[in-house]
Amino acid sequence: xxxxxxxxxxxxxxxxxxxxxxGTYPVGxxxxxxxxxxxxxxxxxxTVLEAYTLLEDxxxxxxxxxxxxxxxxxxxxxxxxxxVSSPGRDPSQVSLHELVMMLLRDSTNPDLVQLGAALPNPExxxxxxxxxxxxxxxxxxxxDTHQYLLPPGLETLRTLVARRLVNAGCSLSPNDILITSGGxxxxxxxxxxxxxxxxxxxxxxxxxxxxxxxxxxxxxxxxEIPTHPxxxxxxxxxxxxxxxxxxxxxxxxxxxNNPLGSxxxxxxxxxxxxxxxxxxxxxxxNDVSGELYFGDKRPLVCKAFDKKGLVMLxxxxxxxxxxxxxxxxxxxxxxxxxxxxxKFTISAASPTLPQMAVAGFLEGGGYEHHLRRIRREYAxxxxxxxxxxxxxxxxxxxxxxxxxxxxxxxxxxxTVDSLELYKLALKGGITLAxxxxxxxxxxxxxxxxxxxxxxxxxxxxxxxRLGEMVFELNKS
Length: 476
Ligand SMILES: Cc1ncc(COP(=O)(O)O)c(C=O)c1O
Fold this sequence. Notes:
- By secondary structure, the chain is α/β, with parallel strands linked by helices.
- It folds into three domains: 69 residues, Winged helix-like DNA-binding domain superfamily/Winged helix DNA-binding domain (Arc Repressor Mutant, subunit A, Orthogonal Bundle); 137 residues, Aspartate Aminotransferase, domain 1, CATH 3.90.1150; 219 residues, Type I PLP-dependent aspartate aminotransferase-like (Major domain) (Aspartate Aminotransferase, domain 2).
- Helix content is 42%, strand content 14%.
- It has 16 helices and 18 strands.
- The protein has an eight-stranded mixed sheet, with helices on both faces.
- A hairpin with a 3-residue loop joins β1 and β2.
- The chain is globular, with a radius of gyration of 23 Å.
- The N terminus is likely disordered.
- It binds pyridoxal-5'-phosphate.
- The site of pyridoxal-5'-phosphate (PLP) has 14 residues, from α8.
């Protein structure tokens, strides 16, 4: 059970949340004053203040100067968010491969409603344009497409990536970039370059299970750091952890964590980079969904603040252009030559044709237009799926509010086990990702991740059925 949930202020906040939901304190009404609440419940003033701050964070109440706290209008009503995660304080070995392989099998079954894997919506991929480019390339009567493109990979593509990164706050040369086979290879190469088996890597918690698999393969131990559902890794908790353990690298999904959808605010990214620079600890930054923001501006990357070459920035075009082409890249800073050598040693080169195809797509213009469209669509799908969860799931459910990407992280009532739900859902023709796979120490038994990339009538019915199953499991 999460530590935070046992805290008195959380219990108090949850009680008041229920009263607000039941209409005992309707919109616009004043909730009991801090003093009244403290007397009524026999708790300290500071506990009540903490509870009220939590309710403010949940968007349920707002303070009016000199007047007290009032229930906020619930137009566009939202479920409360999960609390900051509270994983254990010791590193753990990862052993998740059996569960992950089970997920993998089910995520490729076309007969199931796929809410499990974080796959992009195929309709939002620029398939026709890519196919035209590939056809053009294969018609050319030269041998270029049949040669190795040895590390660091196609120069035109690296140049276009470096230009694109200006928006994310980076000033890089094409030589700083290495083309990889997807983001996951980039993460793997970075871990290989800076860690040895048995080393400790600190990560956000929850963390994308593919990354945890890379840690498992390398025999690394994971130190899970409390993570805020909207603002990512908790820097105070990280600073504390770095005092306790000899951490070899820190790994974050800086923009739109999978599964949280959290985005580390830019000034906190700067703080994070500074903190790690003082301790000479490399930061492996995963930014695969960085372009899928819902706000006005692309969030920066931690790499933008990297003065010492300690940030290893990893990304790919899997979420926004084509996951099948397997094109990713790494800007590994001071570890560049090591990472290039590893890339050459492990796979010689990434396939040539996909590198040329992606370069052709980026050069041809229209990428920005394409991104604007899919950002709008994903933001809408996130909203629609959130509303469906709110409609069909029992009270006690909590939900993230991603500011980008296309996944939702759902906290179910504590009695509901996500693996039991997974099995029930599978029988009912639905997949989901159970919380277990997002933590080395399996801290999220009553959480699930849902993919919001595609939304249709059958998704709506599937969420309704899932809600019924959650009700059932909650009763038993
Ligand atoms: C956070 C995160 N990192 C990495 C990956 C893998 O990226 P790629 O397909 O480019 O290897 C994914 C894919 O789901 C992801 O969500």
